[in-house]
Design goal:
Layout (H helix, E strand, L loop, with lengths): L4 H6 L8 H10 L3 E5 L4 E3 L7 E7 L2 E6 L5 E7 L4 E2 L1 H5 L8 E4 L3 E7 L1 H4 L9 H26 L4 H16 L3 E3 L4 H8 L3 H13 L3 E4 L2 E4 L6
Antiparallel strand pairs: 1-8, 2-7, 3-6, 3-8, 4-5, 4-7, 9-11, 10-11
Helix pairs in contact: 5-6
Length: 224
Amino acid sequence: MDRHLSAICQSPLFHGIQPDEVETMLRCLDARQRTYAKGSTVFHAGSATTCMGLVLEGAVRLENVDYWGNRTIRASAGPGQTFAEVYACEPGLPLDVNVVAAADATVLLMDVGKITTLCSSNCAFHATLIRNLLGAVAQRAYTLTRKIEHVSKRTTRAKLLSYLSDQARSADSPRFAIPYDRQELADYLSVERSAMCAELSRMRKDGIIDYQRNQFELMQRSPL
């Protein structure tokens, strides 16, 4: 865990907490480092957990799979980002998603019950961690609200434009990388992959966007 301490300290979850305090806090939280091969499951839908995760390397995604095996991606998390915090805050609430390693991943699992309950050491920095956890939960709610905004658009082009515009704003640049390949992007936006790829090609031909794999650039031409 020592080689990941810098990344842990830079996570928004530990914002305002000094590195030596973080090490103490990790012991209070019964933090455990785990590695997962790409495609393996971190948490299963239907199970309950008191643990939230922090991605140290790689990435994970939250996905639904229906009775017929159709996948919908709800969200993703990369280095420094948290996942499953909403479910861990309410242990009686079973997960309605699978948490899957989107790439070979190293994660830190922490007992949320020990975050929301003051520890026996009476850590002075515990209140800061609680505030940061509330911020992470709020950020997750915001992310899901944005996804609803994207998928509620009527056309595939409108869904793509809504999502790509959000990514450009987040990057504060017309050039940015997205965390999904084409199939994953289609699953995230709830569209058919071939139709989406065809629409991306038309958008590039129309001078609205340019792209290379998961690297995108929004052009100045109006999409309307």
